[in-house]
Amino acid sequence: MEFRTMRAFVEVVRQGGFSPAAKAINSTQSTVSKAVRQLEDELGVPLLDRIGHRSELTAAGEIMFRRAQSMLTEREDLLLELDELRGLRRGVLRLGLPPIGSSILLAPLFVAYRERYPGIDIRLVEHGSTRLEEILLAGEIDLAASLLPVADAFEVQSVRNEPLVVLFPSRDPLAGRERVDLAMLEDRPFLLFETGFALNRIILDACQRRGFQPSVAVRSAHADFIVELVAAGLGIAFLPRMTAEQRPHPDVCTVRLDEPGTDWHLAMVWRRGGYLSHAARAWLALAKGETLTQADAQSPAEAAPSGA
Description:
By secondary structure, this protein is of the alpha/beta class.
């Protein structure tokens, strides 16, 4: 059984078809189809039930998909450990960052990391936190910035805790208040981020605790666009305070959200029990040092964080 055929099969399932799978692994559709057929022939059972242009996992396929993901992740861990024999003079840091908050908090860290470790290749993936956690568990990245709380499958290192603010059109009657809670916002349309952003989960879970389901007017992946929609009077939105402060608008007012369990708490996360490369440990150490510097420490920590 070859890793090549397993990788092709896993990508077909993950990407939802042969054509997008071929694109994901820089191959052709016929090559991917042949690899999956070779794996089925080797195992002696069908893994995919091909229905027209769709393919669904068979019972055997579900078992193979679960096992193949684990084997591919273990292979990546093996290759990373062997690569560490060369130390930090060479290597790869596979890092996942969400669009919200990353530019403010982590851009200076990129500069510092590049200065210290110029031989490390930083491969950046950008998605919402929920999607980043999925690809982190699949072993495709080493670290991700995500919002707490996260599942027990992850280790965490805190980066920043910020309150949320509500963005109102300046003419809204609530725009002049110092604080609001979600019960006061039930009748207003919400402007949320796209599926995959953990900030949505924080807001929607809090609404559920309040006993209502908000009306969602628009979803977008871009904070600047959401701010403009608020200014136009389409609805209200939610951002971490520091992110909102970076996007002032003459027709938008921000009000502190006074609601339990809605703080925006960003952390670096990684797979519990998974191999953590020296490049990833160095990033965590530097991130911890940057946090300490902001809290009156004088210089970044040099050592990797304990328990990493």
